[in-house]
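Researcher: Let's run the pair from yesterday's discussion. Sequence first, then tokens, for each.
Model: Starting with the first of the pair.
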Amino acid sequence: MSDPDPEDSDIHALEELVRAQPRHADAWVALAEYRWEERHYAEALEALNQAIRSSADLNQVIDCYLTKGDLLLDAFPERAADHYRRAADLAPARLGARLRLGLLALRDGHTDIARTEAAACSIKAQDPGIRAVSAVL
């Protein structure tokens, strides 16, 4: 008889937690990460949607939108961009969404959009690393 997989028990514990406390946003985020690793993409995205609906923390909501965009980027770049835009709309001062939008635009050959995003980043950037990335855009 083999020992139970600890990861299975972790997933089961998360599922129980969100059933018992459906507004526990951190648990939804953790469940989304597990689901994505298992290649249950629709379930992962739905868990992130639940986290967005459940969270009272704007930063966590923005992070969920960024994560949704990151997860969708390769297969559905237009949908990824929608999530990045939503994050940028919620927190214009946070650079993560703008950088992602700029890099996506650059990847797709939209240099005018990439420059616009880079300009937005360079105006707000205090970190030299972020300024260096926005300079590439």
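Model: Moving on to the second of the pair.
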Amino acid sequence: MWMMLDIINSSGVSSEAFVADVADGSDGRAPPAWMRVVGIIGAAYVVVYCAIGVWRDDLYVSLSKSSSNGPHLHGPLARLCFAGSVMMSIGIVGFLAPEFGGGAFDAAARRRRFGPIFAVGLAFYVGSPVIAGLRS
């Protein structure tokens, strides 16, 4: 174990940090608290924005950074986009939220658990404006 600590020390990581990570079981890749808060607030904002658009039956979604107009989704496509935003938000919040019971942050396990939910949501969210663009 001491040889491992010497190798880690030569790479610039303190042995105290390594021992602490090994002791609590975390993999050392936990995002900082401010990043978690911003991600969770952003995910909630996207869901609320899409919910208002579905409620009004006029969901505006722009996938480009330019000032060009994006499609206005109505009916089933708006609901599909909303379902995608909810699934993406579940994936983001599930990855970023603190573990219940004070468990360690394991990025790889969380990515395996919430990554597919996020990917399917992203496909729905991006797919609905693409379908709307093809229909017009």
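Researcher: Give me one sentence on the second I can quote.
Model: Residues 83 and 94 are 16 Å apart (CA to CA).
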